[in-house]
Design brief:
Layout: E1 3-7, E2 10-11, E3 14-15, H1 17-26, E4 31-37, H2 45-50, E5 53-59, H3 63-66, H4 70-83, E6 87-91, H5 94-107, E7 111-121, E8 124-131, E9 136-142, E10 148-151, E11 167-170, E12 201-205, H6 215-224, E13 228-231, H7 233-237, E14 258-262, H8 268-271, E15 279-284, E16 297-300, H9 303-316
Parallel strand pairs: 1-4, 1-6, 4-5, 5-11, 6-10, 7-10, 12-13, 12-14, 14-15, 15-16
Antiparallel strand pairs: 2-3, 7-8, 8-9
Length: 321
């Protein structure tokens, strides 16, 4: 069996959702060995085992959170040199991108970023990804020792395994590990509802809303539906809403039960980030808008007229946030 390393990240003291997804994919490809470099690593070993890790390498040095990327990259590179895994998988997060870049550069490893899938092929592996704004899908054969793949969040559905507790191996921070950029503070943006990535309902807006103030309609509707608010790249680039709300090729990938696209034309750059939703509802004045080609229900109309009517109807039925 192939030996698969998974760089596993924590959200607080829990396995991050994307790490659960990547562990799920890894166990389809071979024997899974998780690498957790975090002061709270010891508390996450059982969870890593639940998602398929047979071995968990843990490093609990405070430097992994105190300094940016360099200590973790050095420790990961040492582990790769010692164990020579056949493949290394990462979730495509900000930290993992930085750590993967540094470790792979040090060791001269192949890297494929923003992958949507990985499959066994001819005794090795190949990574699937979208290019040219999501208009084409390609399969890249991975060459060389211990190739690295950064997997796009929501590309895989996380599913626990049925295995027992993993073997736990403690690893020391290399004495030579560089310690450059230091984290001085971490700020978590306050949230009144589910995160965009985890919400079962996502209400997104585009340029058809005409003014950033009209995103208040989306906020109200999302609150009624216990959902989250997303946005197209156009309105993010215009400064209407923060980048954290962008859905699409260069934003976040979401797979909610319901995706409501309001005033969004449906360019490929956007749809690649939400086409996995179970149900898609679109509101747009242009009956020829591309979004109508992929939606389950389309409303040809002005979102600024449809949304208030929809909110009033939900409230009349006793729906409340």
């Amino acid at each position: 069996m192939a030996r698969i390393f998974v760089f596993t990240e924590l959200s607080g003291s829990e396995l991050s959702p994307v790490s659960q997804e990547v562990l799920t994919k890894a166990r389809q490809l071979g024997d899974v060995e998780a690498v957790i470099l975090d002061p709270q690593a010891a508390g996450a070993t059982a969870a890593a085992g639940q998602f398929g890790a047979q071995t968990v390498y843990i490093g609990a040095d405070k430097a992994y959170r105190e300094f940016v990327a360099q200590p973790a990259a050095a420790a990961l590179a040492d582990l790769v040199e010692q164990h020579h895994p056949d493949l290394i998988l990462f979730g495509a997060t900000y930290d993992a991108r930085d750590i993967c870049a540094r470790a792979s550069a040090k060791l001269g490893l192949t890297v494929v970023a923003n992958a949507t899938d990985v499959e066994a092929q001819g005794g090795g592996f190949a990574a699937a990804s979208s290019i040219f704004g999501g208009t084409q899908n390609v399969l890249t054969e991975l060459s060389g020792p211990s190739p690295c793949v950064l997997m796009r969040p929501k590309s895989v559905t996380a599913e626990p395994a049925s295995g027992g507790p993993p073997k736990v191996v403690e690893v020391a921070l290399p004495e030579s590990a560089p310690r450059g950029a230091r984290r001085l503070d971490s700020v978590v943006a306050p949230a009144s509802g589910p995160t965009l990535e985890e919400a079962r309902v996502v209400v997104s807006g585009g340029r058809g809303l005409q003014d950033p103030a009209n995103f208040e309609l989306l906020e109200k509707l999302a609150a009624l539906l216990h959902g989250a608010v997303g946005a197209s790249r156009a309105v993010v680039d215009a400064g209407w809403v923060p980048y954290a709300r962008q859905v699409g090729q260069t934003g976040k990938t979401v797979k909610p039960d319901l995706y409501l696209a309001c005033g969004i034309s449906g360019a490929m750059q956007h749809t690649v980030g939400m086409k996995g939703a179970k149900h898609i509802v679109a509101i747009n004045r242009d009956r020829d808008a591309p979004i109508f080609k992929i939606c389950d229900l389309g409303v040809v109309g002005d979102a600024l007229k449809v949304l208030p009517a929809l909110i009033a109807e939900l409230e009349s039925r006793g729906v409340s946030g």
